[in-house]
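Now for our target.
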Amino acid sequence: MSTSAMRDGLDTAIAVTDEDSSGAAGDLAALGVSSGPCGAASLAGIRAALTDDRADERRTTLGLGPASILVLLGTEGTAASPHSTTDH
């Protein structure tokens, strides 16, 4: 993806750790969703963005409230991740 496409097409972006992505994959597996760490990065990212000390500011900037619905895309299952620690 080009820098201009990212700049013009995104409201925000956040980096997550491998540990956070793996944890999110485990949480999804507990719900029966097959996801490797890369596929679960969207869940890890939204958690990181909306649970730290700047969460209220980000929620306001993004227009997120109690009735908001977030759609997370997971593009990788555990079969694509041979190092996944989940069983689903």
Summary: Helices lie at 3-9, 18-30, 41-51, 55-62. Residues 3-79 form one domain. The chain has four helices and no strands.
